[in-house]
Specification:
By secondary structure, the protein is of the alpha+beta class. 31% of the residues lie in helices and 21% in strands. It is built from 4 helices and 7 strands. It has helices spanning 4-9, 12-31, 142-159, 165-180, and strands spanning 36-40, 43-49, 59-63, 67-72, 77-82, 93-97, 101-107. β3 and β4 form a beta hairpin. It is elongated and about 90 Å long.
């Protein structure tokens, strides 16, 4: 893989060709893994196919803060190694679905970072090409949601030529001060 600087010098057609080749290589590498995986900013979900009729007691699944191991009793491990990044152990789980798929849910410790791969020795994906799904305001925690709503309100106000929430707060504080101090003359005051 060449540097970003080389990429920037390519023509549009050359970039598209390189992107297509990179995508095809990435798909081939990921398809060769003994599992499928997907991620969101806060979590990684892994699906490991197991022989039909497998029971939970037939599986050996070890989830640690920085390691993952999956196997069937008495057989070679299906996957084992160091995780790309640390996980929240208490929020990470596994379950067997329809006696043929092992579903592993890993909660990321750093929920603001994409993973390059699940296990460090497996092929990496290009995280710059990830297009996250649109999230809903209701998916956000209270503090983040409040901040996003404030930004949306301020943006709307600016587009209409009206004061932002911070400007409204300043104007309200000034009004209260003027009401509390009628003896002061604010007619020539410049307030920013």
């Amino acid at each position: 893989m060449s540097s970003d600087n080389d990429y920037d010098k390519l023509t549009k057609e050359e970039r598209e060709a390189r992107d297509k080749a990179d995508r095809e290589r990435e798909v081939a590498e990921q398809s060769a893994l003994p599992y499928k995986w997907k991620q969101e900013l806060g979590e990684v979900d892994i699906t490991v196919p197991v022989p039909k009729g497998t029971r939970a007691r037939d599986l050996i699944v070890v989830i640690q803060k920085k390691k993952l191991s999956v196997g069937l009793k008495g057989q070679e491990k299906i996957m084992e190694g160091e995780l790309c990044k640390e996980i929240k152990l208490e929020d990470s789980t596994w379950t067997l679905e329809d006696q043929q798929s092992l579903l592993i849910h890993l909660e990321k410790l750093n929920q603001q970072q994409w993973w390059d791969n699940v296990l460090t020795h497996h092929p990496k994906i290009d995280t710059r090409k990830i297009q996250p799904e649109n999230s809903k305001l209701s998916d956000l925690d209270g503090e983040t949601r409040g901040m996003v709503e404030k930004m949306m309100f301020d943006n709307q106000q600016k587009q209409m030529g009206k004061p932002t929430s911070d400007e409204l707060k300043k104007m309200e504080a000034l009004k209260k001060f003027q009401t509390a101090h009628p003896e002061l003359d604010f007619s020539n005051a410049k307030i920013s």
